[in-house]
Amino acid sequence: MLVSVYRYNPETDREPYMQDVEVSLPEGKDLMVLDVLNLIKEKDQSLSYRRSCREGVCGSDGVNMNGKNGLACITPVSEVVSRGKLVVRPLPGLPVVRDLVVDMGVFYKQYQRIKPYLQNSTPAGGRERLQSPEDRAKLDGLYECILCACCSTSCPSFWWNPEKFVGPSGLLQAYRFLADTRDEATEERLADLDDPFSVFRCRGIMNCVSVCPKGLNPTKAIGHIRDMLLSRAT
Amino acid sequence: MVTNVLNYGRSGVADWVVQRFSALILAAYTVVMVIWLAVNGGELTFAQWQGFMGQTWVRIFTLLTVLALAGHAWIGLWTVATDYMKKGGVRVAFLGSVAISLFVYVVWGISILWGF
Ligand code: SF4
Ligand code: SF4
Ligand code: FES
């Protein structure tokens, strides 16, 4: 199978280029894209990419495969290959450090900005803060995010204003804490989001929903935040 | 990164509400105009047209629509500009000409409607 990989080593290359590699796949077995990258790396040690868990848990191997973002380790080659060719590029919109490795700095900055931790100044009664099963259920579909950045780097609004638009991943996390009955900072959190960029740059294109490897729905979470901002203002 | 003195720091909720509300006004005006033209259209005379536009409620409704249009266009184009125009100078020039055009339209609209 023909694999075309994005290569860029800022120390030796003047500009990025696509490298075509012929990879022989084992018969009768559908490899994951990460396996294919590993096969290439066996021959060419200079190829760089991130990976760790190889089972869709750590979120480190988000890449763009034939135009669609996803985790290389849980994406079967058969699902993305088109006309016998697999094209692997780094996540779009972030600066490339080398080959498939991108600088996630601005992505983490947005995550940090939404204060991704419980804020509660009331001393806990007893040993811990209890929640009813119903309240706990409100966090389902939010807490599972593994911060792989597949969604934010597929979002045009994030490409154009990564410093100001929080992006789908950060907003999903923001809503995770807004929806948490144990968190007391709802007002401060909303006040931090009520400008024309942070939330309202979301155009509802739903690229984020279509790529999330965890099947989460950032657009829905963003809708909830918008509703909270609206009712806060009225 | 976008920094825009013209608008930075304004409430996103306010923009959002103005955008929806002005869209409703524009839609309502369009419906009224289309219906009126469908009923009176065909051989429309100047007197008919002036009689219609001269009514106070039509004038007020038209003025409201002109203002809604200006607000709607401003927020929309400001958004587009801060998405796609990365050079500060280009954006300021663009938004400046938008602001002046919209202002001229509003003043011109008022002078047509209330004739002074
Ligand atoms: S729905 Fe919003 S956050 Fe998701 S990709 Fe579209 S603009 Fe981005
Ligand atoms: S919402 Fe999904 S795509 Fe986005 S960072 Fe979280 S797990 Fe990844
Ligand atoms: S290697 Fe951990 S998610 Fe793919």
Structure, explained:
The complex is a heterodimer of chains A (234) and B (116). Chain A is α+β, with helices and mostly antiparallel strands and 234 residues long. Chain A has 2 domains: 2-102, Ubiquitin-like (UB roll), CATH 3.10.20; 105-233, Alpha-helical ferredoxin (Fumarate Reductase Iron-sulfur Protein, Chain B, domain 2), CATH 1.10.1060.10. In chain A, 32% of the residues lie in helices and 13% in strands. Chain A has a 5-stranded mixed β-sheet, covered by helices on one side. In chain A, strands 6-7 form a two-stranded antiparallel ribbon. In chain A, helix 6 crosses helix 9 (218-233). Chain A starts with a strand and ends with a helix. Chain B is 81% helix and 0% strand. Chain B has 116 residues and is mainly alpha-helical. Chain B starts with 11 loop residues before the first helix and ends with a helix. Chain B has 4 helices and no strands. Chain B has a single domain (12-114), classed as Up-down Bundle (3 helical TM bundles of succinate and fumarate reductases), CATH 1.20.1300.10. Classes of the chains: A alpha+beta (234), B mainly alpha (116). The A-B interface holds A 157, 160-161, 163-164, 193-201, 226, 229-230, 232-233 and B 1-2, 7-17, 79, 82-84. The structure holds iron/sulfur cluster (2 copies) and FE2/S2 (inorganic) cluster. The site of FE2/S2 (inorganic) cluster has 12 residues of chain A, from loops. The site of FE2/S2 (inorganic) cluster (FES) has 12 residues of chain A, from loops.
